[in-house]
Amino acid sequence: MPEIKVRLFANFREFTKTKELKMEGETVRAVLLTLCRKYPGLANMLFKDGNLRDYVNVFLNGRNVTSLDIQLKQDDEIAIFPPVSGG
Question: Which of 5, 19, 32, 61 has the highest CB neighbour count under 10 A?
């Protein structure tokens, strides 16, 4: 199973008290679900009714993820961003 770097930003970083960790998973979804098991309560921030919340942005190797079922390779990097606003 590939080892993936997961980078967390803003309130996700604050909630988990970490900015980066290594996880194993075959797909983006598998990694996100493992992350939610490791940090109870995170699932409510990331998912609604089993789907990624509209305002959560997930990037794989710098590209916006369009499907959580993308197969991962060793040393891929997932970045998870909450909504960003400002003015």
Answer: 32
Task: Report the distance separating Cα 58 and Cα 28, nearest Å.
Answer: 9
Residue 65 has pLDDT above 90, yes or no: yes
What is the Cα–Cα distance from 11 to 39, expressed in whole angstroms?
Answer: 13
Q: Which residue has the tokens 């079922």?
A: 69
3-81 sits in which CATH class?
A: alpha beta
pLDDT at 20 exceeding the cut of 90: yes
- Reference 32, options 83, 78, 75, 86; nearest CA is 78
How far apart are the C-alpha atoms of 74 and 5, rounded to whole Å? 9
Quote the mean pLDDT of the chain: 94
